[in-house]
Amino acid sequence: HDESLARDVDAALRSIPDFPEPGVVFKDFTPVLLDPALRTRVVRDVVRRHRGGVDVVVGIEARGFIIGAVVAHELEVGFALVRKEGKLPGATHSVSYDLEYGSATVEVHEDAIRPAQRVLVVDDVLATGGTAAATCDLVERCGGSVVGVEVVLELGFLDGRSRLGDYPVTALLTD
Ligand code: PRP
Q1: Residue 166: enclosing H or E segment and its boundaries?
Q2: Complex ipTM tops 0.85
Q3: Can you give the residue range of the structural domain that contains 64?
Q4: Of 32, 138, 154, 174, which has the highest C-beta tally within 10 A?
């Protein structure tokens, strides 16, 4: 594990109080994207762990698309999108999960992942873990197998990891 990378990402993350609602401190990772050297180190850290072991990278809307697509490019594998409901034009699998108030649904194209493919799930933040767990369900509905969940930041106090069972979760940084 690259401690200096975790430190540098931590320094780059920006805390925005009361976003998206009062009482929540939003961790904004867009400064990491603006810094080409730091962004490259983040991507290489993920790529190093998974080279040769992945057939498809799945990025979770919206910020997971950014890191995920670059990781897929570096690994020279396909990239699949997990999106909020109603956004994907083709036939989809769909999984709903509970939020504090209400529920959310994510979708993937049925043919984005083929049976037995090894799938790496990428996102910026793991919070309650609901989105990542639903994404892993989607991968399995397609017949794929999740080889890892990679996030830049894990909000450890929300214990999202516990919703991800035995899937190997790696966070560059834990808050
Ligand atoms: C954020 C984040 C993760 C998800 C994590 O996305 O990028 O995808 O929430 O939360 P969870 O672990 O509690 O499920 P957001 O819902 O803000 O969507 P956006 O990236 O499209 O704005």
Answers
A1: none
A2: yes
A3: 52-174
A4: 138
What CATH number has the domain bearing residue 80? 3.40.50.2020
Percent of the chain exceeding pLDDT 90 equals 95
Q: Is residue 14 part of a domain?
A: no
- Name 125's bridge partners: 153
**100 classed as catalytic:** yes
Question: How far is the centre of ligand 1, averaged over its atoms, from the C-alpha of 174 (Å)?
Answer: 16
Q: Cα–Cα distances in Å, from 101 out to 97, 98, 104, 174? A: 11, 8, 10, 25
CA distance 64 to 18: 22
Altogether, the residues listed in the chain come to a count of 175
pLDDT-derived band at 1 (thresholds 50, 70, 90) equals low
Q: Is 134 in the pocket of ligand 1 (CB under 6 A)?
A: no
